[in-house]
Amino acid sequence: MAGFNVTTEGWEHEGLPVYRPIQRRRSVVVARSEEIDDWIQRKGSKVLEKNGSDLLSNFARARKLTKELVFARKELRERMAVLRKELAELRAKRRSSL
Fold it and tell me: pLDDT tens string for the chain (98 positions)?
């Protein structure tokens, strides 16, 4: 919801289920996808008629970015495992040459 922060306060007034771990305006916003999906099903169409479809496009983008993040994280973990193995092999070679 990073790119969504500018309008989060307005959507909060419409009942969007978001949480602010630090209770201040313009603070970090946390949301649970299940609660947002439920909110869209219950109230979303009425709010969208009034406010346009920005909300849905932002949620779609957030879901896409989340999937990309999960994939990138998996790739990074795999690469780290390879690098750890290579480092261990280099250390073993160095020890054996001493």
Answer: 444 445 677 777 777 888 888 777 677 888 888 888 888 788 766 666 665 566 677 778 888 998 999 999 999 999 999 999 999 999 999 999 87
Q: Please count the other Cβ atoms lying within 10 Å of the Cβ belonging to residue 58.
A: 16
In angstroms, the Cα distances linking 55 to 6, 7, 51, 80 are: 12, 9, 8, 37
Cα 46 to Cα 51: distance, rounded to the nearest angstrom: 9
Give CA–CA dist 12/1, Å, rounded: 13
Is the pTM here over 0.90, yes or no? no
Give, as one character, the DSSP assignment of residue 53.
S
